[in-house]
Amino acid sequence: MTTINREATPEGDNIAGPNQLHSDLHDIWGNPRGLKALTIVNHTTLGLRFMVTGMAFFLLGGLLAMLVRTQLALPDQDFMSPDIYSQVTTMHGTVMMFLFAIPMLEGLAIYMIPKMIGARDLVCPRLTSLGYWCYLFGGIILSFSLILEMAPNSGWFMYTPLSGSEYSPGLGSDFWLLGITFVEISALSAGVELVVSILRTRTQGMALHKMPLFAWYILAMALMIVVGFPPLILGSILLELERAVGMPFFEVTGGGDPILWQHLFWLFGHPEVYIIFLPAAGIVSTLIPVFAGRPIVGYGWVVFAITVTGFISFGLWVHHMFTVGIPQLAQAFFSAASMLVAVPTAIQVFVWLATLWLGKPKMKLPMLWIMGFLIIFVCGGLTGVMLALVPFNWQVHDTHFVVAHMHYVLVGGMFFPLIAGLYYWLPLFSGRMPSETLGKWGFWLTFLGFNGTFLIMHWTGLLGMPRRVYSYETGMGWDIFNLLSSMSSFIMSAGIAMVLLDFALHFRFGKPAKHNPWNADTLEWANSMPPSAYNFVSLPKIDTRHPLWDDPDLPRTMAEGQHSLAVATHGRREMWGTDPLTGKVREIIHLPGNSWWPLFAAMALAVVCLSLLTRLYPLAGIAVVVAGLFLLRWSWENGAHPKAAPDAEVAPGDPPLHSRTMDGPGLWAMSITLLANGSFFLSYLFGWFYLWTVSPEWRMPETSPLSLVGLILAGVALTAGVGILEKLVRGLRQGKDAGLAVGMYCISALGFVQVAITLWVLLSADLAVTETSHDAIIMVGLAYALLHGGLGAVLTLLQGLRVGYGYVGAHAPFEPAVVAQWWRYNLVTFWILVGALAVLPRVIGS
Amino acid sequence: MSITMQRLHLTHPLHFVIGLTLWCIWFVAVYGGHAIACSVAPPAPEQGVFTLVNAMLLVVSIAAIALLAVLTVGCCRMARRHEGRLRFNATVSAGLYLFSTLSVVFAAMPIIGIPPCL
User: Fold this and answer.
1) What does pTM read for this prediction?
2) Chain B interface, best mutation among A263, A318, A333, A339, by max B CB count within 10 A
3) What residue spans define the domains of chain A?
4) Is A316's Cβ below 8 Å from some Cβ in B?
5) Annotation: CATH topology of A699-846
6) So what's the ipTM on this one?
């Protein structure tokens, strides 16, 4: 917390002029330089870091793509060996999907969302920082495998058994599984805080139906990340356990099933396509009204389409598995669902066309990329509908037709809108305009090169050319098409190089941009260009979807501090916490300042990743404990802690600080985190019941190895803990905190009792985890329960200590309510585990 | 309790997700139920579509269609009674319920034409 030695008047009036306000706010929010720049938690800086790092990985992925096209340019090439080719194609897909597309769009959302909704930062700034470091370290670890010539080579989908230890004995698969899981921490961090920020920190009056469409898209994307990533995290953990320890989750002889991997992967993998597409469509829905000079046609239709896409995309995953032998009726369900997703996409396309039709479009540089997007993405969507048809899907399965379709959807649906968005917001990033000449050259070369590369692949695919094969014989009729495709890919590369050159040069040579150069309607353009660390001097009340069109003077009045929260004398980083539906102000959210803890925690997690990779398990265990300690130390600096908000004083008439209420954003962040956790847990249950039902060699013992009495006793301890905690939280709601510390210590003790009994049940079960998938999956389930029980016990222990320090109590009642959510979740999942692992097998039998 | 009732009101944005959540639950129930039925007690192929599996899947689908259709009508009525934010919420919810209803109809159609376990 920064101290400003100037007093506000007792009435809360701002006695400072605009310049003084800027200066005061800069003292509180400004970024440090030098080594301390590593502690920055500000969303503007971290958003830029995400995007710059994403572009670096894009160059790596692009380079790998050029190597692939060089290899395939001519028949019978030996430019690369088959193994290196497999590594290059696997890493191209992996880098583009996990290290470029998602982090890049997350970076844009992290940068843009607070500015668009009239906030000063994201709601969990240290989480943004942790996410960035995990992304950077995970990306570096994964990329390093290329230098070692140990990169994964089983395809970006890592199908078992090819990726298992028998067929991929090296470290390649481990690099993928551990590196990607590490990077996914970043995606989930961003997902959680974007959801909470959009729902709880919009400026005053910005009700849900007045929110910018981009925020709707990002809300859907973030929720999809939260629900969609955990199945892959579970799959990666199981596969790594199989490879490292020999637990046979995907080996048929041990009672596992390789198809389980495909289910877990595509449960993530298909929504992933829409996780990438939705924010890009958000860019399109933001830009088209601006350049058409009119509001979007059918705001409600777009919200409808976003919601439908978010849900339906989770019901399509089996269309990636039409050839694995599932019954025809099941294929028909997924074929129908795959066709359904075309409906919301078509609605958006018609909305965009209608907006252009009814407006007066100006074909500026960003609009060129939008037009390119419309053409390419519609073609990709149409071939998608073709692929949803089972017989056609069988026909072109694993051919270059699928490669062509995928690139039309992903490059057309993500890359083109992304570049449009970057060109559009470039003046905001830098205060300068891009070069129209370089930009147009870049666009046309990319557009023509792209179509030359991938349109042709539809034909080679229909002619039967398989994908993932490093070479082909001459005389198959594919030679000329491949040569043209490869030549076009280099034209496309030249176009992208020109765009990147334009981006780089504009920072120095670009013409200074006038304020709001495109005459946009959304709040981000009320910022200075480039923006300050705190975004806005004062936070306005908004009662329209187009604040800058309806009040062009708003940027000036905001900068002069004529709106709310234009006080900095308290030294806190503050912004509004608002009602998620109506946008009415509820509380003042105070945010933490710069911190080393996210970096330290990410470094410890990197050590965990590397030591697992090198099989140094004791070191991995130590690093896990160290990472946990860093994270708990981070959580210590909250609420009424001296580094957070020891003084709860606010201006008369202002609402209280969030840490002095029972409904702060932390509660929401915990709920969304538990949603992700629940997705992981449901994926686990899916795995358990899938293997039990489908696995051909599944072996379940006649009697369950788990002690039911032991599990019930553990559950009773847990239930008692939750009961006491609920009573304490109810008391805090009524302003009573008598016996709070003792109560917390009791609950913690009950938590440790639950852990001890569960551990005893696990150890006494004598599980043969390397022999049967039955025992292995029980082991994972009980480890899950132990981890959750242990963490719950530690968190309540810390709460007891915090009561003693005076950080928690009737004056600051927030944190126990957050911890109670964890305990409730733990209670529900524990009893479900008892039912699934110990009761059902006794009732149904094997 | 009053907060819960407030959230169940058809003008609450929670209904943006209820219809499609019901669609997801129906989809998982039909896909999972079908897989279990085929694994545990597959009917003879010569029975064609006239099997207990198809019948059960159809019953579940019709129940889902009926529930979603009722919610669609409810949201439409509620949209006509309100203005502004509440009307927006109810209208979008009505559209989403309608889409969910039609989605169940569309995705359930193969049940009447394809034998279950081939």
Assistant:
1) 0.94
2) A333
3) 699-846
4) no
5) Four Helix Bundle (Hemerythrin (Met), subunit A) (1.20.120)
6) 0.90
